[in-house]
User: Which sequence fits this backbone?
């Protein structure tokens, strides 16, 4: 199957002449981005993103300021807050080389299931932070009958007890599963492209990039919101980072979660270095300039990659966060993120606006 990366109508609409993409002059690259994205509302194409990723450190502040202006103009000041919970942890048959939940590696995450009352409790705690999204995640290739039945039960129990949008991340789906999740009221579905198509086989060998793409297309066609993101720092080149931004932009997801590798012991990428902070900030800004209207979410790895520079990302294009812990690694207490948003005078997006 060939993924229609270059033929998607939304992508075609976003493509514009990138007359200055090859220019090496930082001022010209930024002026081009200002015209196209800030003023025109058109995302940068692959060449434009690459030029931004190659900007020197001296241009970083100006780049982040531009990406922030773009986010404020095309998305507004609100920040979308989400909590995630693992319904089924570990023992995944896939071999994503960055993931400690794969059953193929010698990593310390063991297989475990969460029961429905615990799921509802987690949703309630998430809603108490002001979050509007609660994502149920399972470490699987795709859902089997047991998982689908747990999800059905869990989603119904949450909907009956908690005011929050429910999202799911359950791996690759069949059309029948997409239809069922839509029918039971799943608001958004997460399935990441993870990395550029040209790099994918260096990161995952048990399924293909095209299979991921296909699930994303089905989700969007069914009317669920599509959350499709990336993990940076998995050995990709800058060119491949730009390729990935263009591929995501072609999918036109409602949300892009941006993960940075947090090297986990026992995984094949366990000794990879974290992404250098300035490269991470350039990537955040570049993804914002590629997708001016998307929800761009800080996801796993931001603590290890950015540390104290996290607020710079919030002022450089990010407009969503995951509060609390991630699936296998600790994040920061929700209060720390909520304080950061208050300090930045960024309001949390309210549920009324999303239901
Ligand atoms: S990233 Fe997802 S599919 Fe890949 S090994 Fe981890 S849990 Fe499995």
Assistant:
């Amino acid at each position: 199957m060939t993924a229609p990366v270059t033929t998607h109508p939304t992508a075609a609409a976003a493509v514009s002449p990138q007359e200055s993409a090859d220019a090496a002059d930082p001022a010209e690259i930024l002026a081009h981005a200002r015209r196209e994205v800030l003023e025109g509302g058109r995302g940068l194409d692959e060449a434009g993103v690459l030029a931004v990723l190659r900007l020197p450190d001296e241009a970083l502040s100006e780049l982040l300021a531009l990406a922030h202006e773009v986010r404020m103009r095309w998305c507004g000041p609100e920040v979308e807050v989400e909590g995630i919970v693992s319904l089924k942890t570990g023992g995944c048959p896939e071999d994503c080389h960055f993931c400690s939940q794969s059953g193929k590696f010698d990593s310390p995450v063991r297989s475990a299931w969460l029961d429905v009352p615990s799921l509802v409790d987690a949703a309630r705690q998430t809603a108490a932070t002001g979050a509007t999204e609660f994502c149920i995640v399972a470490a699987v290739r795709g859902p089997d009958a047991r998982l689908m039945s747990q999800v059905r039960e869990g989603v119904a129990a949450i909907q009956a007890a908690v005011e929050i949008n429910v999202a799911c991340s359950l791996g690759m789906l069949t059309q029948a599963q997409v239809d069922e999740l839509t029918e039971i009221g799943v608001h958004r579905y997460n399935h990441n492209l993870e990395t550029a198509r040209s790099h994918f086989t260096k990161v995952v060998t048990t399924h293909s990039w095209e299979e991921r793409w296909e699930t994303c297309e089905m989700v969007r066609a069914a009317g669920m919101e599509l959350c499709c993101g990336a993990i940076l720092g998995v050995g990709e080149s800058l060119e491949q980072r730009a390729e990935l931004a263009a591929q995501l932009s072609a999918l036109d997801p409602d949300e892009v979660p941006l993960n940075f590798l947090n090297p986990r012991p026992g995984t094949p990428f366990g000794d990879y270095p974290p992404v250098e902070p300035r490269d991470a900030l350039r990537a955040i800004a570049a993804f914002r300039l590629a997708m001016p209207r998307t929800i761009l979410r800080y996801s796993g790895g931001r603590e290890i990659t950015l540390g104290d520079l996290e607020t710079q990302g919030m002022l450089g294009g990010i407009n969503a966060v995951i509060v609390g812990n991630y699936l296998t690694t600790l994040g920061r207490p929700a209060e720390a993120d909520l304080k950061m948003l208050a300090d930045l005078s960024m309001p949390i997006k309210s549920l009324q606006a999303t239901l």
About this structure: The first strand starts at residue 80 and ends at 89. The beta strands are 80-89, 112-113, 133-138, 165-169, 188-190, 225-227, 230-232, 255-260, 295-298, 320-322. The longest helix spans residues 145-161.
